[in-house]
Specification:
By secondary structure, the chain is an alpha+beta fold. It is 34% helix and 36% strand. A hairpin with a 5-residue loop joins strand 9 and strand 10 (166-168). The protein starts with a strand and ends with a helix.
């Protein structure tokens, strides 16, 4: 697996490249509809509700997202993603989700999954997560990273600490890397679990716990209870 972050003209982008343990037809079957994407994206700890509707330009996925997992869904902001199945052949799958507006001056959220066959039972997958921000959003984010988010890191190793341990990227690149990885792991867990929602939740949590320095938030029981409660509403 390879993860990298980069600056765009007006925002940030995180890319994950990986070999996944499913053939391309299984990926297409698991990621080919907006309803399946709702199931996958709800694995992310901060995504509390997901609905599918048919808008003027086609299928739309609306995510209800909280800033911290313990906030009630009533405090969430809504991200309406346009769902596009761009290509679905025996040699290439491409799906995109785009939201033109977001909270606090963020915009142009874009999630893209591309995959090609690696062999008969594996696929090479590229997952991309990006968004843009205006001056207000950038200023608010810098304030967060200088206070509550000061200790949070990403995955890219930028050096060594005085103790000789890896020194991981901080700041905005660390933030976008964490979110890109959470979403990639959600897609991977959803694809491998099939229609078993509880298995997908357990798989996502187990995958995130492999990276406790970057992704640990709560214990498994609390996460599973949170997601079970969300599913009832």
């Amino acid at each position: 697996m390879l993860l990298k972050s980069s600056d765009t003209s007006n925002g940030l982008k995180g890319d994950v490249y990986a070999i996944v343990d499913q053939p391309l037809p299984m990926l297409a079957q698991a990621l080919g509809t907006p309803f399946q994407w709702c199931e996958a994206m709800l694995l992310h700890i901060n995504n509390r509700k997901c609905t599918v509707s048919n808008g003027a330009s086609g299928d739309e996925i609306t995510l209800s997202v909280v800033r911290k997992y313990d906030q009630p869904v009533e405090n969430s902001f809504h991200l309406p993603f346009a769902f596009k199945l761009i290509d679905n052949t025996s040699q290439h799958l491409e799906v995109s989700l785009g939201a033109s507006s977001g909270p606090l001056g963020t915009s142009n959220y874009r999630i893209v999954v591309e995959a090609v066959p690696a062999d008969a039972s594996h696929s090479f997958l590229h997952f991309s997560y990006a968004y843009e921000e205006n001056f207000m959003a950038h200023t608010a984010l810098q304030a967060y990273l200088a206070t509550f988010g000061r200790s949070k890191v990403g995955f890219t190793v930028v050096g060594q600490t005085p103790e000789g341990t890896p020194d991981y990227v901080h700041g905005t690149h660390g933030l976008v890397e964490r979110n890109a990885m959470r979403y990639f792991l959600a897609v991977d867990a959803h694809v491998n679990a099939g229609k078993d929602a509880q298995s997908a939740r357990n798989a996502w949590f187990s995958a995130t716990e492999k990276y406790p320095r970057q992704l640990h938030e709560i214990d498994r029981a609390t996460y599973l209870e949170l997601k079970a409660n969300d599913a009832q509403h």
